[in-house]
Design goal:
This protein is an alpha/beta fold. The protein is built from eight helices and nine strands. It has a seven-stranded mixed beta sheet. The protein has a two-stranded antiparallel ribbon with strand order 2-3. α1 (2-24) packs antiparallel against α2 (32-54), α5 (130-145) packs across α6 and α6 (170-178) packs across α7. The radius of gyration is 18 Å and the shape is globular.
């Protein structure tokens, strides 16, 4: 039964993406906000579908830690732990005007790439070296100046649960250049949607949004503070889920090393 449920969930996930995109294509001709709202609706529906098919629910903690002005979210950097595909869309409905930093290759995907580009996601062409970094920095600054929430995965790619942290300097670079708060976000999604695995496990994905790190720290100090906050909270969320008997069983130590 768990295998069958995972199969159904996988088929519906990709089928929903295709079937939803076709009737939504005219939205691309409208304002950027239309495409942003279309992704938000798709995200909500996909999360509901995963809850129905495999019992994969979610909980967002600490939303009040997102910087606001007059009750409205303002420009900031959200640095999130990255364990599964879930957080690439699961955070979307809770942010006013999100701008994900993603690989340029994703913009070439039919449908998904078109909506990502039209809604103002920031694509990075890693083959262009230092110019890619300059282009990303300029686009990121424009985004936060417009009051958007910039989402970055500071380890650069999905990490297995229990894998040692591997934080890259990109988050510290943006922090230094943009002069806005960095909001750490921990998550336990890898327990329920494991990296590069077919399985999907029932339970509750928890996102914990932590107090913002204010601008003004040295880059190295900020990165140490960021890593400590995210990793400490992520460990707590993983242990909390395991204590409840939910999620994937732990992998052997050699499988998560490096």
């Amino acid at each position: 039964m768990p295998t069958l449920r995972a199969l159904v969930a996988n088929i519906l996930f990709y089928a929903n993406m295709v079937l939803w995109l076709i009737p939504a294509l005219p939205i691309l001709l409208g304002p950027r906000r239309w495409s942003l709202n279309a992704i938000r609706v798709w995200s909500h529906f996909t999360m509901w579908m995963l809850a129905v098919t495999v019992g994969l629910r979610w909980e967002i903690r600490g939303l009040d830690n997102l910087p606001t002005r007059d009750g409205k979210q303002i420009g900031c950097i959200i640095a999130s732990k990255h364990q599964s595909h879930w957080e690439t869309f699961g955070l979307f409905p809770y942010l006013y005007d999100p701008a994900y930093i993603l690989k340029k290759e994703l913009l070439r995907l039919p449908g998904f790439g078109w909506f990502s580009a039209r809604s103002g996601m920031i694509a990075v062409d890693r083959s262009r070296g230092s110019k890619a970094l300059r282009d990303m920095t300029k686009a990121a600054k424009d985004a936060v100046d417009e009051g958007r929430q910039l989402i970055i995965f500071p380890e650069g790619t999905r990490r297995l649960v229990d894998a040692p942290p591997d934080y890259k300097p990109g988050a510290a670079h943006l922090y230094r250049q943009l002069g806005v708060p960095v909001v750490p976000a921990a998550i336990n999604s890898g327990l329920f949607w494991p990296r590069r695995q077919f399985a999907r496990y029932p339970g509750t994905i928890v996102v914990s949004i932590l107090p913002a790190i204010p601008p003004g720290l040295e880059s190295r100090d900020m990165l140490v503070t960021l890593q400590d906050a995210i990793e400490t909270e992520t460990d707590k969320l993983v242990e909390e889920a395991r204590a409840a008997g939910t999620g994937a069983p732990p992998l052997p130590a050699e499988a998560v090393a490096g």
